[in-house]
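Q: What does the assembled structure look like for these inputs?
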Amino acid sequence: DTGVSQDPRHKITKRGQNVTFRCDPISEHNRLYWYRQTLGQGPEFLTYFQNEAQLEKSRLLSDRFSAERPKGSFSTLEIQRTEQGDSAMYLCASSSGGKETQYFGPGTRLLVL
Amino acid sequence: AQKVTQAQTEISVVEKEDVTLDCVYETRDTTYYLFWYKQPPSGELVFLIRRNSFDEQNEISGRYSWNFQKSTSSFNFTITASQVVDSAVYFCALSEEYSNYQLIWGAGTKLIIKP
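A:
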């Protein structure tokens, strides 16, 4: 099994720009999760998909954030009109079911200048 | 109320010492799962172990061991003969049926192993 992959690994952008991140889960995993992690903190849940359906979104996920998983495989997380407070590590994880272990990708580090 | 408590913010030991990372959890569910993840400086969260609430057997994997005690709601992690490569932030997490098995994270313990 190849693990969860994320692209890009690093992104520097200017305030107000849009950014998009991609996550490729472990093949056959039907659940895909997005988290955000700031320095010195644990991961914060953003949203998750069961196949292509987005089943839950955190209140942290403002209107500027949108996530898709169009064919139930890879997922994208877009942040519109980025703000400096969006600077964080964005982590993706996948699992074979709700009770099952979540396996994480290497993350995308976002820096908004 | 914090559901997963890792009271040790940072621990520093000298290589080859044994070290225990504490994790205390709260849940109303009878069915739940406990996890430990390691996050080295590279940032990737590495899965270490998953335990379900019905299995209180301690687990050993090489230098790593875990002590699950339902009576004290604890799931502690011990590294024996620590090595510099063990330096990382370690997170304990809980998933419970009540919360639709969403991971609830502790704040993490930063472990520094000095040569």
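The mean pLDDT of chain B is 93.
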